[in-house]
Design goal:
This protein is α/β, with parallel strands linked by helices. About 50% of the residues lie in helices and about 15% in strands. It binds the ligand O=C(O)c1cccc(C(=O)CC[C@H]2O[C@@H](n3cnc4c(=O)[nH]cnc43)[C@H](O)[C@@H]2O)c1 and zinc ion. Ligand LNDFFVEH binds next to helix 4 and strand 5.
């Protein structure tokens, strides 16, 4: 993560610019953000777990043969979260890690079903994430919002339960803004989830399913047409369908692009083969995200550095990418204006000799 990036003006270190750039993140998973430090703390609390605590062993453990293997490992980390205090610790510490990267706003994808089915009381779960959200904002200056996602492979029972947790007025957390769909796509058709998305949207939640991460562009069309997606998680295979790219561009439907994740899960072979350039060439609103950063050996700053290389961006190009995330976010208008201005002020100050 420390190599230099070349720009047209010569070789320049953009990493320092990225490190200080105020950012918003729209696609990052709660459990998937558990750093080795957090995993070690949780594993020490629950020593019967099979998850290694030693950072080197953890790096090996987080090397995936394919997407199915990734989900299997992911669920072993989910198994480390057993009490409301574990939920609070994870959420609060994830926000601390975000603040270190100058993340000002993040929509964190949480799978409440995975926790409640493991016996965590639903009321205590909501209180834990909300308590951490408020503390993170007050202490780290990071504004957190939630996306509750259906773990698709777990089927309609999980969908029903996720919908209930997201829309029951006695449970629904204040920070919840959107409804998602995660897990494997192969063998998990999107249209079956239409009734759940319809009800979530009717309850005021925004639709942000994963689609086109491990299957073709038809899944992205299904997410748009059946689930009324306002943004697409990954959407990688959209590059194979020019009509779809044109549709995404025309309707300002953002793609939540997570380059390193796509390599780690073997959805894309190499970074140089990543279709991000095709997205920007087609005028699609591209946002940069880290997905499950420690599991993929990355962080948001590194994803911006990867994007700078793949898209040949300078400082202003990077600031524009950061502003794309603000535009595609579910922040309120005042918050959007504030963060956009903060990005512009930072870039101008950086570029003023
Ligand atoms: O929790 C369980 O016991 C369980 C049982 C059956 C199936 C599931 C899931 O499908 C969980 C999938 C889980 O994966 C999360 N996630 C994290 N990163 C990604 C990604 O890049 N693409 C798709 N899903 C991802 C997702 O949020 C789900 O929670 C669970
Ligand atoms: Zn994801």
């Amino acid at each position: 993560m420390t190599d230099q990036l070349s720009t047209r003006e010569g070789v320049r270190d953009l990493h320092a610019f990225i490190a200080g750039l105020p950012k918003a993140e729209l696609h990052v998973h709660h459990v998937g953000s558990a750093s080795p430090r957090i995993v070690s703390t949780l594993a020490a609390r629950h020593p019967d777990s099979q998850v290694p605590t030693d950072p080197e062993a953890l790096a090996d453990y987080f090397t995936f043969t394919d997407f199915a293997h990734f989900i299997q490992v992911y669920l072993s980390v989910v198994d480390l979260i057993r009490t409301p205090e574990d939920v609070r610790l994870l959420t609060y510490e994830v926000a601390r890690d975000m603040a270190r990267q100058q993340v000002r706003y993040a929509e964190l994808t949480i799978t409440p079903w995975s926790s409640t089915r493991r016996g965590i009381d639903e009321r205590a779960f909501m209180d834990a994430i909300e308590d951490a959200r408020k503390a993170a904002e007050a202490e780290f200056g990071v504004v957190l919002r939630w996306c509750f996602d259906i773990p698709g492979e777990a089927g309609l029972e999980a969908a029903e339960e996720t919908l209930r947790l997201a829309t029951d007025d006695r449970l629904r957390p204040e920070g919840l803004v959107s409804f998602g769909l995660g897990g494997p796509e192969i063998g998990v058709p999107r249209p079956q989830f239409k009734p759940y998305f319809d009800q979530a949207i009717a309850a005021g939640l925004r639709s942000v399913p994963h689609a086109g991460e491990t299957t073709g562009p038809e899944t992205v069309w299904d997410a748009l047409n059946e689930l009324r997606a306002e943004r697409i998680g990954h959407g990688t295979s959209s590059a194979r369908d020019p009509k779809l790219l044109a549709h995404l561009a025309e309707n300002r439907i953002a793609l939540e692009v997570c380059p390193t994740s796509n390599i780690a899960t073997r959805a894309v072979r190499t970074l140089d083969e990543h279709p991000i350039k095709e997205f920007t060439r087609a005028g699609v609103l591209v946002t940069i995200n880290s997905d499950d950063p420690p599991m993929f050996g990355t962080d948001l700053n590194n994803e911006y550095a990867v994007a700078a290389r793949l898209l040949d961006l300078d400082e202003l190009g990077l600031a524009a990418l950061a502003k794309n995330a603000v535009e595609a976010s579910f922040l309120d208008p005042a918050g959007r204006t504030r963060l956009t201005e903060e990005i512009d002020t930072y870039a101008s100050a950086w570029l003023t000799p």
